[in-house]
Amino acid sequence: MSKDKKNQTLINEDVVDFTDRVRLVDGEGEPKIVDSEKALEIAYNKGLDLVLVAPNANPPVAKVMDYGKYKYEQERKKKEAKKKQVKIEVKEIKFTSKIQDNDINYKVKHAREFLQKGKHVKFRVFLRGRELATPEKGFEVINRVWDMVKDIGEKQNEPKLEGNYINMLVTPIKKKKK
After folding, report:
1. Residue 55's domain spans which residues?
2. 50-101: per-residue pLDDT in tens?
3. Residue 125 falls inside a structural domain
């Protein structure tokens, strides 16, 4: 089956082509196993569609319903789920191991603003050339930064060396619901 066919809901004649027997759910009584042609005939007699709702079941499950209404309901559910999603924005702030105090203060000021707005902040200390031999200086910088933001942020992970960077993710402190 092709990729676009796999994501597509099978209806009416496509169900008959897909399988010869289905477990039919028609809203009247218990589901019953019938030939797919018979199921299609039942659906047409009611003026509705035969929709395959569980193609991987044994036998596949088909339901008699109004396909247009079903499709509309699925789209509405997707939109509702999308509305409830929260997009997390991560701001990245880079330092070097030889950064001056006033530069750290300036960058931390911006990081505090981001945290107060509810954004996540990723602090990165870049180690160049020989600085990789002494990553302790990078850890000192990142720990100084942490001391400046720990009153408004939560550390998600301990600072760790990844390649040429020492990374630390800080999220805003969650407010307790009353």
Report:
1. 3-80
2. 988 888 888 899 989 888 888 898 899 999 888 888 788 889 999 998 899 9
3. yes
Query: What span, in angstroms and rounded, lies between the C-alpha atoms of 25 and 46?
Result: 13
**Strands of 1-40, DSSP E:** 21-25, 32-35
What length does the chain have? 178
Q: Do residues 59 and 115 both lie within one domain?
A: no
Which pTM does this prediction carry? 0.54
Angle ∠(137,141,145) on CA atoms, nearest 5 = 165
List, for the chain, all residue ranges whose pLDDT scores fall below the cut of 50. Answer: 1-5
Amino acid residing at 149: V
Task: Note the pLDDT of residue 7.
Answer: 61
Give the separation between CA 37 and CA 17, rounded to whole angstroms: 10
Q: How many domains does the chain have?
A: 2
Rounded Cα distance, 69 and 114, in Å: 44
Distance, CA of 60 to CA of 62 (rounded, Å): 7
